[in-house]
Structures are given as structure tokens and as C-alpha cells.
Amino acid sequence: MGQFTFFLTHTPSGGTVVQNSTARAFGPEALATNGEFAPAVTAWNDTRYAPVLGGTGSAEALIIDLGKGAGRGINRVKIQADGNDVYAVDIFKDGAGWTRLYTAQTAAAGGLQTRDSGDSLTDPATGKPWVGQYIRVWPVSGDGRYSVSAVQI
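^ thats the sequence. predicted structure below, dont judge the formating
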């Protein structure tokens, strides 16, 4: 399966757009990436890279719309986010609600850190890569300061 990278850009009017993709994103982002993964250990709130999220919980989620009828399978997730926090990556399957795709655990170092699921993600119901319309990324736990700078699927 091909890898799609979604880089988000905050607009002056408060909207969020996705570059390098036909997908759309929306959510509580204060700002977003400049189209690149940040260098490792970049400050968690570096305004050149990272949208800062307000707190834990799915209400603080970054949501990526892959498009209705998106048929490509997802077998890998890379997320760059604040290293001392845990982030959930969920998928919305065919109106069946949200299902956990990957949990990005804390990293050894602070600042923005990339976590990678590897190429092994499969839907247990089908044994094949996940298929769904939306991806949701949200902070589960940590120090109360959360940011996500890039998501690659």
C-alpha cells in the first residue's frame, strides 16, 4: 500500500487545510506543520511545526477526512508529537464508530518525537489493512501540554 502524508496548515480565518493530499482536516488546531516533520527534539510548542492541543480526550482531536469511499488500506501510522505524552490514532469504519488503530506511547526524549507503528496494522475483523473514512489523533495522557506536528499513514 502507498503511504499518504497529511500536512496541516492553519489559515488566518481559523480553518485548517491539508497539503499534499486530497483529504481534508478539521479540529481544534491552533496552527499546524509547514509540510515537513520537525527535526527530532524540536520544542513541543515550536510554532513553525506543531499545533498545540487544549488537553486530553477525543474532544481535542485532530480529524483527517480521507474521503467517502476511501478504499486504500492503512497498515502503518507515523505520528510526530510531543514526546512525553501518549496519543491515540483511531479510524472511523463505515459508520461503525471509532476504533483504535495505534497508540503512540511516550518517547525516551522530550520535544517533538516521531513514533512509528511499523507495517503490521491489520483490521482483526478482516485480517487486511484498515479501511475507513476518517482518522482521529488525540492526546490520551501526559504532562498537560500536547501538540501534534505530523501524521503519516
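The chain has a mean pLDDT of 74.
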